[in-house]
Amino acid sequence: TNTCSQTTNLGIRGAMLFSVGVFLALVLNLLQVQRNVTLFPPDVISSIFSSAWWVPPCCGTASAIIGLLYPCIDSRLGEPHKFKREWSSVMRCVAVFVGINHASAKVDFANNVQLSLTLAALSIGLWWTFDRSRSGFGLGVSIALLATLATQLLVYNGVFHYQGLQYTSPDFLYIRSWLPCIFFAGVITMGNIGRQLALYEYKFIQEKTHQD
């Protein structure tokens, strides 16, 4: 029964993280549409048959994996993550993450280097403010690099499009310069949500055990 209960709780957490991931993917895409640089076509909400309808579910799946992985790695390393463990902090982290995306879409930078350095500083600032764990930083960097590489392969294979056309080199160089920073901030954000859900579940089980 205990194993069944643990599996159910894991499933619930995974489903919640998946939903958050899909929601954020749609919100962030709307921000990027304003820049006319989209990871998937702007009509994705009106038509699930658009050429990249699978992007939000992929973001949701990645969010669920990341959110479940973070607390798991914390317990494996024997380093319970105690820094800023409350929902208000998690909500602020999400807001900052959306803000970083908004900056990449709205603010006009002089060149790619300036954009990349600014977003890198903001992303590391997000990690320092809301995480500060070595495991969080390491996992964030690793997943961000893998995700950027995967995106690059998809672009070169013509899966992602730029306003209905394939990316041209300058377009993609512009996107590639900020993608790792956005991915890193996203990983830290989902890791924070995952940790908080795991903590909430742990407290709930402890209270229930105490009552029994």
Short description:
By secondary structure, the protein is mainly α.
Description of the molecule:
Mediates feedback control of cholesterol synthesis. Belongs to the INSIG family. By secondary structure, this protein is mainly α. It has six helices and no strands. Helix 1 runs antiparallel to helix 6 (169-211) and helix 2 (55-77) crosses helix 6. The model is unreliable at 42-51 and 162-167 (pLDDT under 50).
Element layout with pairings:
Layout: H1 2-33, H2 55-77, H3 87-106, H4 112-130, H5 134-156, H6 169-211
Key descriptive features of the protein:
0% strand; single chain; 212 residues; mainly alpha; 6 helices
Number of helices: 6
Which class best fits the helix and strand makeup?
mainly alpha
Give the CA-CA distance, first to last residue.
15 Å
Largest sheet: none
**Which word captures the global form?**
globular
- Low-pLDDT windows of residues: 42-51, 162-167
SSE order in H/E notation?
HHHHHH
Instruction: Name the beta content range.
Output: under 5%
Rg calculated over all Cα atoms: 18 Å
What's the number of extended β-strand segments?
A: 0
Helix content: over 70%
Report mean pLDDT, rounded to a whole number: 79
